[in-house]
Design goal:
This protein is 31% helix and 26% strand. The strands form 4 sheets. It has an 8-stranded mixed β-sheet with strand order 4-3-5-6-7-8-9-10, with helices on both faces. Strands 12-11-13-17-15 form a 5-stranded mixed β-sheet, with helices on both faces. It is globular, with a radius of gyration of 18 Å. The termini are far apart. The relative contact order is 0.13.
Length: 297
């Protein structure tokens, strides 16, 4: 079954925007070979952009504006939410055009992350219509969720996204993907990592959030980029990374937290807001939330 057929029962504007993003993703997948290196620009976080960052961002914005399927669009590479007045829909999208782009030069997996809303994108993640991500690895895969299961498709030789796995459920597993330097860990997080290691969890961390969470979704365990000394708000962006990926993992039977509360209940205060992130199995998320309570009691 192809992606279009799988989406046939959903609202037409939602279906069309997912299909539109999937077509842009095919162009992005073909673009890596000729767009290596860094650009002369930095994004709103002061990070040097690679050439693919700039191109993928411009391509997604141009194509989504032209589709007239999206009224509000927030991109990780842009300082403000864009509004397209000629849109025929009230959909709002958040996009991380190329998560993990610093890894492009060494040919590791990177991805595109999309959150889908009705109206204002500066809303808690629990109110999302759905989310999706595209992973550019040995295969180009697309995973989407519209509150009716988490489903994965792979790009085949004919240029179609075809169904690989339907109704994905995160399994129990013993993988942990820990971001930040160990020397900067705060007490509760340090205890959490030591607990996982004592229980035999295997470290699997690539530096690409979308790729690492994709592995957790399929094999179980937990990804974390915590609050740490010098950055108590963490590193990852709520709107573009944590909320959409957290929505997908939660819909697959997992959970997402800032270490103390369900991350999907947090209303973004700004497009650039950062949060500590724990995402994966419910057992691991319950464990870290309990350890934070113990540490503050």
């Amino acid at each position: 079954m192809n992606l279009e057929t799988h989406l046939s029962e959903h609202d037409e504007d939602v279906k069309q925007v997912i299909l539109h993003v999937s077509e842009v993703a095919k162009k992005i997948s073909r673009g890596f070979a000729t767009r290596q290196g860094v650009s002369d620009s930095s994004n709103i976080y002061g990070e040097r952009q690679v050439a693919m960052d700039v191109w993928a961002d411009e391509l997604l914005i141009s194509e989504l504006r032209g589709s007239k399927l999206v009224r509000h669009l927030a991109s990780e590479e842009q300082p403000d939410v864009l509004t397209f007045e000629d849109s025929t829909s009230d959909l709002g999208l958040t996009i991380d055009p190329l998560d993990g782009s610093s890894l492009i030069g060494v040919n590791l997996a990177v991805g595109t992350i999309v959150g889908i809303y009705r109206g204002d994108v500066l809303s808690p993640g629990e109110g999302m219509l759905g989310a999706m991500y595209v992973l550019y690895g040995p295969l180009t895969t697309l995973t989407y969720c519209l509150r009716e299961g988490v489903h994965e498709f792979a790009l085949d030789d004919n240029g179609d996204f075809v169904l690989q796995e339907e109704n994905i459920v995160i399994p129990e597993g013993k993988i942990y993907a820990p971001g930040a330097l160990r020397r900067d860990y705060l007490p509760a997080h340090r205890g959490f990592i030591e607990r996982l290691e004592a229980e035999g969890y295997k470290l699997r961390y690539s530096g690409s959030f979308v790729a690492d969470v994709h592995q957790i979704l399929h094999k179980g365990g937990v990804f974390t980029y915590p609050a740490y000394a010098g950055s108590e708000m963490g590193k990852l962006r709520l709107l573009f990374e944590a909320a959409p990926m957290g929505f997908i993992v939660s819909q697959a039977g997992g959970a997402v937290s800032d270490g103390r509360r369900d991350l999907l209940t947090i209303k973004p205060e700004a497009v650039s807001q950062r949060v500590p992130v724990y995402i994966g199995g419910k057992r691991e998320i319950t464990l870290i939330e309990g350890m934070h309570k113990e540490n503050t009691s």
